[in-house]
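INFO batch 0412 | record 1 of 1 | parsing
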Amino acid sequence: MIYIWLNAVPILIAAGLGFAFGAVWYQGFATSWRRAAAVEGTPSADPRILIVTFAAEAWLAAILAGALILMPDQAPLWVMTTMTPLIIWGGFVLPTTLVNHRFQGRPWRLTIIDGGHWLGVMVIQAITMQLIGLSAPPGQGYP
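INFO prediction complete | emitting C-alpha cells
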C-alpha cells in the first residue's frame, strides 16, 4: 500500500474533484432523487456525513490509483484510463447498488441516479490522476 503514500496528492485532488462532482450531480437531480429515495425536505448537511463521504471518495481514489498503476501497458493509456473505472464500476459498484435498491424496494430511477453518480466520480478520478501522474512503487511498472 506504499503506492497510496507515493500518490497522496493526486489521490486527494481526485477525491476532491469526485466530491465536487457529487455535489453538482445531486444538485441537478435533487428533486428526482428526493422523490426516489423518499426523503422529505433537504437532506442534512451534517459535517460528519461530509467527512465520511470525502473519506470514502479518497479511499475509492486510492484503490483506483492502484488499479491504474497495475494496468497492462499493451492497451493505449487513455483507453485503459477510461475503461478501468468503467470495468470496476460495472463489476462491483453497479451490481451492489442494484441488489441493495431491489431489496429495499427503491425505484429504478434511484439506481440510475446513484449509479450514474459513482460512474462519474470514478471516471473523473481516473482522468485526474492520469493527468497529474501516478508513481509506481519501486519494482512496479507504470505506463
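INFO post-check: The chain has six helices and no strands.
INFO record closed
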